[in-house]
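> forwarded from #structure-qc
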């Protein structure tokens, strides 16, 4: 399957029939998204199948308290490092799906880290062949959910774009906080948070906690994507300034993609006089 459109879906909302895509930018992002996919499946007592290059590769999200007997790790890299064999890899996965059905599992989660195969013999064709085989197995299913992942740092932009186009669903992080007023989502490239909705007095504590966590997790600048934010009050701006002061010495609090009306508010209160707070990018209209 090749598609020019896609659905962005938090990893918690992936469902049977989804053949999802994740290009992660580091172990932290992989653990945050793919790790949640693995962990949630094991906690739900679903069958989890993890396809990777070597059986020695770490499985993100796996901790000693989880029922590891529900997890099967498959090594797809052929002996001697020959090119990926998409037919053999798909056959291994099909055999595991058959075993899971016979064992009575109500749902199966298939996670595949294909980073090891990027740039391998045969170029991108074997990977795209495997993706087509996976899509034929997963898309019509009422019990199988799949998440394919690669480390974007290891792939050429054109190859990543081609693999991305082979998936109709793109997995995103679960929100750090979400209600009818405000949604806070962690971002990884750049590191920080995406805020959408409204920031009023009732959500000040949420903002303060989220900023503290983002600051603790980030050695450099903390970026806040405000494209989806419709309102911010003066109290929330003060919280941003306090967070910038606490983060001083390690980086700035950078406000990205600011809607025009929010930029006007910030300019009115004199954001440039707040040490450690920086605005970037053009106005959004």
């Amino acid at each position: 399957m090749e598609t020019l459109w896609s659905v962005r879906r938090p990893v918690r909302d992936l469902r049977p029939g989804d053949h999802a895509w994740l290009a992660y930018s580091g172990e932290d992002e992989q653990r945050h998204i793919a790790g949640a996919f693995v962990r949630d499946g094991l906690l739900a007592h679903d069958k989890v199948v993890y396809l990777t290059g070597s059986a020695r590769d770490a499985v993100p999200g796996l901790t000693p308290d989880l029922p590891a007997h529900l997890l099967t790790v498959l090594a797809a890299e052929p002996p001697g490092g020959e090119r990926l064999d998409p037919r053999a890899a798909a056959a291994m996965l099909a055999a595991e799906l058959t075993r899971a059905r016979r064992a009575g599992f109500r749902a199966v989660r298939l996670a595949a880290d294909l980073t090891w195969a990027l740039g391998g013999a045969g170029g991108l064709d074997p990977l795209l062949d495997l993706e087509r085989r996976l899509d034929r197995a997963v898309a019509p299913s009422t019990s199988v959910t799949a998440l394919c992942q690669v480390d974007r740092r290891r792939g050429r932009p054109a190859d990543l774009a081609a693999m991305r186009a082979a998936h109709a669903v793109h997995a995103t992080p679960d929100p750090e906080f979400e209600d009818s007023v405000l949604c806070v989502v962690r971002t990884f490239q750049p590191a920080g948070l995406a805020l959408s909705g409204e920031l009023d007095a009732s959500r000040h504590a949420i903002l303060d906690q989220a900023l503290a966590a983002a600051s603790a997790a980030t050695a450099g600048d903390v970026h806040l994507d405000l494209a989806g934010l419709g309102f911010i009050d003066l109290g929330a701006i003060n919280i941003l300034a306090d967070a910038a002061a606490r983060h001083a010495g390690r980086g700035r609090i950078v406000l990205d993609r600011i809607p025009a009306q929010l930029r006007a508010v910030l300019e009115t209160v004199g954001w440039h006089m707040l040490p450690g707070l920086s605005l970037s990018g053009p106005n959004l209209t």
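QC bot note: Residues 76 and 88 are 8 Å apart (CA to CA). The radius of gyration is 21 Å.
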